[in-house]
């Protein structure tokens, strides 16, 4: 199945959704809130419609899981071999703040493992992508990139800064000088994949669609996301779609 999927097609879908998002981003828009108090805008819904309809047209036999679609019962999805895992806008809080740090995430999952990922940043037009066995890329350049600084760079979340993060950063020992950067959305994971960041601890709740696309890119770039408590990779299509705490490094 994965050999039939063209990564360039998925890249074009992400960019098409990005154009629609930016049209809304540049104007005034309303913000509503879901039951869990997370924000949602017309841009989330528009991007979701574009991505889902485009994927269905190209690959009608592959089911879709999206943050903005109705939840699919585990009894149904546990039998999926391949499926799309989508976050139409990862970082809606950042979208609302208009700080540019939001992404479009499209992943293909094989059973419990991400095997293809595209993460697009509409504001900067940066695009990260990977397909199993083909490596990871940022804007067409193979990653990880080479850095010439003497820093150990730690990424933390813009929206979920807690005492747990602060304690974790303090405990990190490194022969290099430590530097902390704050970013929104899956940008932190992509920066680990590209080598722009050395480590990203996630010590706050997030869902499978928040990480799936970037996880595929991290794996193909030779990096790792491991569960905080047992050092095992993240797994997908669980009965409970909430991720455990993890570290990307």
Q: Can you describe this structure?
A:
By secondary structure, this protein is α+β, with helices and mostly antiparallel strands. The protein folds into two domains: 141 residues, Fructose-1,6-Bisphosphatase, Chain A, domain 1 (2-Layer Sandwich); 98 residues, 3-Layer(aba) Sandwich (D-Maltodextrin-Binding Protein, domain 2). The protein is globular and about 50 Å long. The strands form four sheets. It has a seven-stranded mixed sheet, sandwiched between helices. The chain starts with 6 loop residues before the first helix and ends with a strand. 31% of the residues lie in helices and 29% in strands. Helix 1 packs antiparallel against helix 2 and helix 6 packs parallel to helix 7.
Question: Secondary structure elements and their pairing?
Answer:
Blueprint: H1 7-25, E1 31-33, E2 39-41, H2 42-58, E3 64-66, H3 74-77, E4 82-90, H4 92-97, E5 103-110, E6 113-121, E7 126-131, E8 135-138, E9 141-143, E10 151-157, H5 163-171, E11 177-183, H6 187-194, E12 200-202, H7 208-220, E13 225-227, E14 246-248
Parallel strand pairs: 3-4, 10-11
Antiparallel strand pairs: 1-2, 4-5, 5-6, 6-7, 7-8, 8-9, 12-14, 13-14
Helix pairs in contact: 1-2, 6-7
